[in-house]
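Problem 12. The chain below contains 376 residues. Write out its predicted structure in token notation.
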Amino acid sequence: MFTMDEYQLADPSSLITPCLLVYPHLVRKNLAETIRIAGSAQRLRPHVKTHKTPQIVHMELAAGITKHKCATLSEARMLAECRAPDVLIAYPQVGPAVTRLGELVDQFPATRFSTVVDNATSLKQLEVEFEQHTEQLSVLVDVDTGMHRTGILLGDAADELYRQLSRSSVLAAGGLHVYDGQNHQSDVQERRAAVDSLFAPVLAMVERLAAGGVTVPKLVCGGTPTFPIFAELAKSKTSVEVECSPGTCVLTDFNYSNNYRDMAGFRPAAVLMTRVISKPFPGRVTVDLGYKAVASDPPAGRRCHFLNLPDAKEIQHSEEHLVVESPAVDNLTVGDVLYVVPAHICPTVALHSHMIVVEDGRVVDRWRVTARDRLV
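Solution.
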């Protein structure tokens, strides 16, 4: 899968652990693979929530990726500060967040912002705010494909919400947001069947609206697991443009590398470095990698893959400690360095203020994880 050699530091002695290491050459490889699967950079709208870092946004822009997706206003601001030309905030904006969105639109005129709605109340609040602005805000209707988290179920109510949006004088109907986070089947054929099942009624909605004179200009589809499937659809001749919005693959993690063999071209581009802090008794060590440094998702016992201790079994996890067992730990001493590919990289990145940048086995820079901070 991946080996210790490409991640090990020549001299880790100056770094306080736990820390997050990032490898730009692997980020670039992952971006190239993402574009290859999509067929072109123009078909991509990657989600910034995985890395939250300006330097990686600039790498995406340099690769020709001009459309981005995010979840928070902080991420949207960071993207605008990077002069990203097209930013979709794929998260419901309610209450004072609507006003802050209006402020961002005014502050960063070079960036075209858009957002999503799944109900008439939110649509009205956006209309009231953007009556004060000279340019229309692009808004997509968020459809519920079966995850039942946000989104409106396909049917008459969804059709009418989109028609209502299309009649707005201050909002522009930008298409449909089609996220399917419930689809994470390891078998690619099962994933393809799931996507086919949800995509047909989405296209039927587009056709019903078109028959009534209402245009749906694009569909923003999927996350990382279904990215290759939606990429195939984007390349085929559908009645509407399809944009793919993977996130995790820019850095990738152990779960994606292990569970989705059809995406084997991606390499973990960020790993955690930790140290042995205690050897309580034979066969067991404690490292300084608590769940304040590696995400507590998935459940305990399945959060870490130790590159130089691959048979480690996670026994106990708390805020600042991780206890593991392995016959090999008796060869370790207090202070020894271990490297870990997290099971879930996105929430892990958000736990770190900086990434330590590694090239050719040496620390060359530190990147601030800018958008981990919320707007207040």
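Discussion. The radius of gyration is 22 Å. Students who got a different answer should revisit the alignment rule from Section 12.3.
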